[in-house]
Amino acid sequence: MYKYEYSRHSHRFVDSHYIFMPKLKFKKHVLAPDTVYGSVMVARFINKVMQKGKKATARKIVYDAFALVQKELKKEPIEIFEKAIENVAPLLAVKSKRVGGATYQVPVEVKGDRRVGLAMRWILESSRKGKGKPMAQKLAQELLNAYKNEGSAVKKREETHRMAEANRAFAHFAW
User: Fold this and answer.
1) Does a structural domain hold residue 105?
2) 15 falls in which pLDDT band (50, 70, 90)?
3) Contact assessment for residue 85 and residue 119, using Cβ atoms and an 8 Å cutoff
4) Quick check: is 163 in a domain?
5) What CATH number should be reported for the domain holding residue 126?
């Protein structure tokens, strides 16, 4: 059995061979829901759209895109947005793991907040690619595509899942 003692010099647990750091718990910043839809997810999306601190511009882009989506499908835009995020969110991803001088792409499960964050990022990246149209229009188009399970954001998710499936043999490295 190991004998642990608390070091006088720091907050670390000391064993004859190992130093144990206590696991730190980070407080997550609680985001206030957006004013129009009362959704924390929309507020988070607005923050992702925002560039150079211009939140009012980001809000306008998102709300205009939602208006265009509502006009197109005649459904509540928040439902369309949530379904689009759900369709793009990845279940699996690959992480690089170095074992004995070789680097392996190890498939790992993607947890809640990261899934949503990746989905938002991919939708935004896809909509920023298109040139010549207003951002709200490009974003609305990408949200519609994601809602219908098509478009480049969904392709990105499928590509990520394919990578995880191809590297399934290295799943035992995930610890």
Assistant:
1) yes
2) low
3) yes
4) yes
5) 1.10.455.10
CA distance 139 to 23: 40
Question: Is residue 22 a part of any domain in this protein?
Answer: no
Owning domain of residue 119: 40-173
Q: Tell me what pLDDT residue 29 has.
A: 84
Determine the length of the chain. 175
Q: 39: pLDDT confidence band, cut at 50, 70 and 90? A: very high
The Cα 133–Cα 154 span in angstroms is: 21
Amino acid, single-letter form, for residue 45: F
pLDDT class for 67, splitting at 50, 70, 90? very high
Residue 18: Cβ within 10 Å count: 10
Between the alpha carbon of residue 166 and those of residues 81, 82, 87, 90, 138, the distances in Å are 30, 29, 21, 15, 32
Identify whether 123 is part of a domain.
Answer: yes
Structural domain count, the chain:
1
Structure tokens at 100: 């004995």
